[in-house]
What does this fold into?
Amino acid sequence: MHDTIRNQFEQDGYVVLEDFLRPAECDEIKAAGIELAKNVPETEQKTVFATTNEQDIQRTKDDYFMNSNDKIRYFYEERAIGDDGKLKVDPAEALNKVGHALHLLHPIFRCYTYSDRVKAVCHQLGFKEPAVVQSMYIYKNPRIGGEVVPHQDATYLFTEPIPPLGFWIAIDDATIQNGCLWMAPGSHKSGVHRRLTRNPDKEPAFIYDRPAAVYPESSFTPVPVSKGTCILIHGNVVHKSAHNKSPNSRHGYTFHVVEKKDNNYSPENWLQEGEGAPFLNLYTTPQMV
Ligand SMILES: O=C(O)CCC(=O)C(=O)O
It folds into this structure.
């Protein structure tokens, strides 16, 4: 079992773990995600998150995004907000995602992040001191859920020599129609193609060091999965997801783990450890506070 996961991870850059969560556990997480969407505090600004255009990414990475390492913050779908700044859709279906400290601040997300199953996977992949650095609930809502363009997670969370590891858990069935992940198997073997780095005291606050790589459509394979499946994502593997044009949501819970032992976490990453956002050792952190 150990070798199978590790070999596949090394070969393809991702591994599909079916039945990682039970349907009832997904339902509990989904209820928590919807509860967050329905109760966005009035004081939160309406920030859009979209990956389709470079300037948008750099603009999105404003203070609201940048200071979300130790908070639960709300990012909207572009198609959810009208020209007047008001919501065009039901608030329960307006968000792109919530992040980035669910694993620290929300009891349900904390429980499913620091779980024995997650710890076992990290052991199997050989992590010595794994730490969770960020978490997101991604809604990919019916009809408006935006495309996520091809990228490597290491572009945003650069660590060396050991790349970060993503856990991506399907909370709904993820299909080709509602925007499942598409992976480029083996693409993790070609290094990190570009990085988004802090650009202190300048505008924009973040810059890419290189233009976006162009990946042929033929390199991607769709990975439709049933609710409760976890996809382990190597930090250097190229992946994407399409616009959800279907009437069904495609919720997912995702978080990233970095190795702390003998590994360098780049001080240029947008996300930094902070007093309210410690990079806690996964093996020793309790599920409940
Ligand atoms: O959930 C998705 O559609 C894509 C998520 C993803 O690629 C990421 O967060 O890196």
The longest strand covers residues 130-138. The two ends are 32 Å apart (CA to CA). Residues 46 and 62 are 12 Å apart (CA to CA).
